[in-house]
């Protein structure tokens, strides 16, 4: 809950990169590009559909923020004093 969003996004990017078995990078764009290049570069294999690729960096970051606040709220739902997390931030 106290981690900055940059740290949260980096860990999420790392997780997704490992999930797709691609090198860990700072940007989701690099993971997406690596995955797409690997699928197109193989001869005789059809190009991967775009929806099956990880999201672009901006969409990924928005998803990470949404999941982070939801997780914080669930994790502390039974606490007496709920944190002052602002969904707009």
Task: Tell me briefly what this model is.
It contains three helices and no strands. The protein is an all-alpha fold and 89 residues long.
Overview of the molecule:
- The protein has 89 residues and is mostly helical.
- It has one domain (5-75).
- Helices cover 54% and strands 0% of the residues.
- It has helices at 5-19, 28-41, 57-75.
- α1 crosses α3 (57-75).
- The longest helix is centred in the last third of the chain and has 19 residues, at 57-75.
- The two termini are 13 Å apart.
Residue stretches low in confidence (pLDDT < 50, at least 5 long) are none
DSSP E strands, number: 0
Largest sheet: none
Instruction: Give helix and strand order, one letter per element, not per position.
Output: HHH
Helix-and-strand structural type: mainly alpha
What proportion of the residues form beta strands (DSSP E)? under 5%
- N/C terminus separation: 13 Å
Count of helical segments?
3
List keywords for this structure.
single chain, 89 residues, mainly alpha
Topology overview:
Layout: H1 5-19, H2 28-41, H3 57-75
Helix pairs in contact: 1-3
């Amino acid at each position: 809950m106290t981690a900055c969003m940059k740290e949260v996004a980096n860990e999420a990017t790392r997780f997704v990169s490992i999930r797709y078995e691609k090198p860990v990078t700072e940007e989701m764009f690099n993971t997406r590009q690596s995955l797409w290049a690997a699928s197109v570069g193989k001869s005789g294999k059809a190009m991967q559909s775009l929806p099956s690729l990880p999201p672009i960096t901006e969409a990924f970051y928005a998803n990470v923020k949404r999941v982070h606040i939801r997780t914080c709220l669930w994790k502390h739902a039974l606490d007496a004093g709920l944190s002052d997390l602002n969904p707009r931030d």
